[in-house]
Amino acid sequence: MTAEPTQDDITREIQEKQREAAERGIPSRHPSRDFAPYRSSILRHPTHELVKTDPEEIERTTPAFGHIDVDPYESDLTIQHPGEPLGERIIVEGRVVDGDGRPVRNQLIEIWQANASGRYIHKRDQHPAPLDPNFTGVGRALTGDDGSYRFVTIKPGPYPWGNHRNAWRPAHIHFSLFGNAFTERLVTQMYFPGDPLFALDPIYQSIPDQAARDRLISTYDHNLSVPEWALGYRWDIVLTGATATWMEDEHADH
Amino acid sequence: MPTTEPDPIATDNAVSGEEHPVLTERLAREQPLEGLPPLVQTPSQTVGPFFGFSLPYDGGPELVPPASPGSVRLHGTVRDGAGTPVPDAIIELWQPDADGRMVQEPGSRHRARGVFTGFGRAAVDAGGHYEFTTVVPGATGDGPRWALLTLFARGLAHHLFTRAYFVAEGEAEPTDSLLSGVAEDRRGTLLARQDTATSYRFDITLQGEGETVFLDYPAAAR
Ligand SMILES: [Fe+3]
């Protein structure tokens, strides 16, 4: 029986993987599916190279969502119950655009998150932190004509997750996004600036490049904060579907 | 936003050495400006284990009502590299209607009777099994009939795309440029084979023996 890995073991593995990625010349803007420090990836990553395909009409189109699908109230996660949820009320706002800066219009965004104590409403979440009867942690919205979205919610807490001894996820909100083509489909996580857990987290660190990782961190925006009410965070999202290759000159220095 | 403020997207790109001095303007005009490098993709992160209270929804797996005329079941089991069923995966289906049209109809989350939207979402059960009720997709051109499947799961840092080519019992195996480019011993993983009069089976293996062919679209990406 192998001993439960410690944080030091995992941190060392993360650093090795990132060194390897740098030597290879970073192949992807997305995380490595084969990233052993994230233990659940070991038996779940494909071993064959993905087959490169020219997208056909099915892949170049994407579902249409409309007001039949999403109620405007679903973008406020603090009004879904009779009482106010506990925690730090926040506004999360941003734009969804494609690689040319074209807005992703009238498209579905779904979010889910832990409550302020770091607990999910999910039967398999075993974290012994309190549930909040006034917080479910699920939101939906349609983007506006300029690709903009806005959620009102509670700042989620970090939570333990059992990947290794003393493993804690940095606070995050899960986002599910549809782009202008199905190839642009994205599920990701938004983080908060200055989190001390970033360096320790194999999920966040599965992205080989620091600049790419930085793109997942929202910015505190004081102009978005509402006096006497909530703090504002801004997070813009670019959907291009790009998996491959840095431009030649972009990595000439490694 | 005042134009003197740094644009967050531009700032991100500046980190990777791509300057976008007029990005805010470009976004404000909603027009691509010629000659600028494309914006940089926001990276993926795993769907995690705790999507079950958010992503699945009533009617998600039912693109058409069960037992309606022409309806078929598309189903299968998701397995990991040890052959163990994956109990925490979620699959999305995107396909043409029976006549091969890619429709653009809202209502995938709150389905109206008689409206086919082409999109569905199904979480696997504890045994890794998923099931959609849909129609056999029509061909969008001269080629075979297929649907796009997107798979998300805990442990999967980035989702996986694959195609399910529908093969009726006794029908010849389809061919197109993708299938002919795939090694013969792996081609079968892309076939959804008819297993009863109204059902097609499409198992997904993430790793190892019988590993499903997963797809990448470099030409679409910027
Ligand atoms: Fe989470």
UniProtKB/TrEMBL annotation, chain A:
The keyword Nuclease does not apply. Residues 92-120 form the Intradiol ring-cleavage dioxygenases domain. It comes from Naasia aerilata. Transmembrane segments: none annotated. Belongs to the intradiol ring-cleavage dioxygenase family. InterPro entries: Intradiol_dOase_C (IPR000627), Intradiol_dOase_core (IPR015889), Intradiol_RC_Dioxygenase (IPR050770), PCDO_beta_N (IPR024756), Protocat_dOase_b (IPR012785). Gene3D superfamilies: Aromatic compound dioxygenase (2.60.130.10). This is Protocatechuate 3,4-dioxygenase subunit beta.
From TrEMBL, chain B:
Residues 72-140 form the Intradiol ring-cleavage dioxygenases domain. The keyword Cell division does not apply. InterPro entries: Intradiol_dOase_C, Intradiol_dOase_core, Intradiol_RC_Dioxygenase, Protocat_dOase_a. Keywords: Dioxygenase, Oxidoreductase. It holds the Pfam family Dioxygenase_C. SUPFAM superfamilies: Aromatic compound dioxygenase. The keyword Nucleus does not apply. Belongs to the intradiol ring-cleavage dioxygenase family. This is Protocatechuate 3,4-dioxygenase subunit alpha. It comes from Naasia aerilata.
